[in-house]
Amino acid sequence: MHDIRLAVLDMAGTTVADDGLVEQAFEQAAAGQGVAAGGAEHERMLAHVRATMGESKITVFRHLFGDEDRAQAANRAFETAYHDLVDDGRCRALPGAAETVAELRGAGIKVALTTGFSRVTQDRILAALGWQDLADLTLCPADAGRGRPHPDMVLTALLRTGTDAVQQVAVVGDTGYDMLTGRHAGAGVVAGVLTGAHREDRLLAGGATHLLPSIAGLPALLLARGER
């Protein structure tokens, strides 16, 4: 087993409960572009949103709407709707998430929190949870170059934390895109959690090396199995 020195953890669905917020925000963004709920076009788009959970949101909207102006408008509407949900108290940490980060950092493992959201949305979530200083580092796609499934955020976290090798990195998430990101980055551990968007088959197809019921099981995986 590898000596893990850095854990790169996804947010929504992994450390933060989604509770359908992404889909609700998408509904408003789509409506603003004239896509009515219940229609065939709406259902096609919603299926794509579900399949690409974890990917950079602006990339998703570019795929859905094609035209850059429409994609940007939809993304702005999505962010506004999501922010309203967060401000309404709809954002909550998953059980054991903050404790997991604290335990890993206490054992000498650095922690980065990553997201497919924009920086302003990520900061909104961190502030709502009081997590501004929880991790060593927080990253969004714009901080690294490209979002998932590209390895950019994982490799940026490795560089910024001074981690020596990709084999010393654990990547943890709830989607197939998270798993692909870990694989593309060469991470020593790629762990899927079952608290979010995708089930076991999608996580394994993405390249998960481990499956966990929730983020609360991560310290046992990384610490009790001799990885330190």
UniProtKB/TrEMBL annotation:
InterPro entries, sorted: HAD-like_hydrolase_sf, HAD-like_sf, HAD_sf, PhnX-like
Keywords per UniProt: Hydrolase
GO terms under cellular component: cytosol
Signal peptide limits: none
One biological process term in Gene Ontology: DNA repair
Official protein name in the record: Haloacid dehalogenase-like hydrolase
Coiled-coil blocks: none
GO molecular function terms listed in the Swiss-Prot or TrEMBL record: phosphoglycolate phosphatase activity
Superkingdom of source: Bacteria
